[in-house]
Structure formats: C-alpha cells, structure tokens
Amino acid sequence: MISILQFILAVAVGFALLCWSANRLVEVASTLAFRLGMPLLTIGVTVVAFGTSAPELMVSSVAAFNGSGGIAIGNVVGSNIVNIGLILAIGGLIAPLVVKARIVYRELSILLITTVAAAVMLMDGRLSLLDGIIFSAAFFTYSCYLLKSSTGQEAEQDIPVLPISTPRAFAESLIMLLLLVLGSQLLVWGAKGIALAMGVNELIIGLTLVAFGTSLPELAAVVVSARKGLHDMTVATVIGSNIFSNCSAPPHKSGIF
C-alpha cells in the first residue's frame, strides 16, 4: 500500500523537476526570442511569462485530465494570488519598480478583464468546454496584438543570451516541455494522494501547496530581473503570467467546489 510519505516524495520530485525545467525553458526560449529580434518587453510578457507559467498550465491540464478539477482550478487561482501578493511584493522589496505606462493601462486592464471573466464563468462551480474555447480565442487574439504592437521597438535593457545555437535552443525547449509534463504528472499524483490521505478537499491543496510550488519559477524570474534592474521584465513577468494562467485554465465538467 502506498504511504503518505511516497506521495510527499512525489510532490517534492515533481516540484524540483518543474522548477528546473521551467527555469531552463525560460533561458533557452528567451535566447531564441532575442535572436529572432523580439524586444525586451515582449519577451517578458510572452516568452518569459509563458515559460514561468508552464508549470501552472501543465499541472492544471494534467489534473483536469485525471479528474481532479479542484487541483486544476485551485492551482490557477492560487498561483495568481501568490504572484501578486507575494512575488511582485518581493520584487518591489529588492528594488523600486518603475514601469512603462503601457503596462499599467493595457496589460493591467487586460488582467482585470480576464480575472473578472474567469470569476463569472466559475460562479456555477465548473468550467465548460465553451468557456475554455472563449478564453483560448481571447488569449490568441491578445498575443497576436501584443506581438504586432511590439514590432520595431527598441530593447532598453539587455537580457542574458546563452551561448548556444538557435536549433539547439529550439530542441532544448521541446525537451524541457516534456520534462514539465513528467513533473506535472508526479506533482498531481502526489498532491491528490495527500488530499485523499488527509481528508482535505482537492481545491484547498490546489490553492495552497500546488499553487505555491508552481509559482516558484515566477519567483526566481522576478528576483533575478529585479536584482539586475530589469523593471519592465519584473512586472511584465507577473502580469503576463497571470493573464496566461487565467486564459489557459482547462475546462472541467464535474463540480469544482
């Protein structure tokens, strides 16, 4: 019989694999994007935010596929709370954050809209396939507009570029995504086992343990960018990550609450 210690070990290994692969994914994806001519702000809102949000996406998708709707939704909501209430605050403590007005008036507005929309869609305790399609279409539209509006802008701050070729960066990105899936499987299996063993609702596990764990890549990215004075990168990572999380919550037919 599987003991709770084995579930805890699975969660620990899953977290470690998620953090390492997500961190490497950010590095190689940022290098690839930089060489393709993307400006810093766009890299922060898209590539870095997507990479640091990959654990949330993978964990929530795997959880939904395995019938753990509480973990899936709790992970998304809890991660957004951790990103703003803890991670962005830590970035501000490291260095004062001065950001472009564009982030305040556009990205924050979009984040507010997606958050309210997610709350409305979840009022019935479930996220339908139609809800998922609506969010996916909205996010695709936003991404296209973001990339188009950022074309031709100058990057005001430098970002680290790995000394690897473009094909290798692309290949490593795919490998890191596969490792993210594996880490997500371990994490969801362990978290679900802990919830069952302790008699705790899956939603609570998703809002706390899983949410904090999947937000660790954002924490690492924000700390590094804040220490280097990359103010746009710091704030854009958090906002872009939350927008990505809101729009990528997987549909789940069974009750969540």
Describe this structure in words.
The chain has helices at residues 4-35, 40-65, 69-94, 101-121, 129-150, 166-198, 202-214, 216-227, 231-247. The radius of gyration is 18 Å and the shape is globular. It contains 9 helices and no strands. The model has no long low-confidence stretch (mean pLDDT 76). The two termini are 29 Å apart. Helix content is 79%, strand content 0%. By secondary structure, it is an all-alpha fold. Helix 2 runs antiparallel to helix 8 (216-227) and helix 2 packs parallel to helix 9.
Summarize the structure.
With 257 residues, this protein is mainly alpha-helical. It has helices at 4-35, 40-65, 69-94, 101-121, 129-150, 166-198, 202-214, 216-227, 231-247.
Distance between the termini: 29 Å
Low-confidence stretches: none
Strand content: under 5%
The overall pLDDT, averaged over residues, is 76
Order of helices and strands: HHHHHHHHH
Alpha-beta classification: mainly alpha
| Count of DSSP-assigned helices | 9
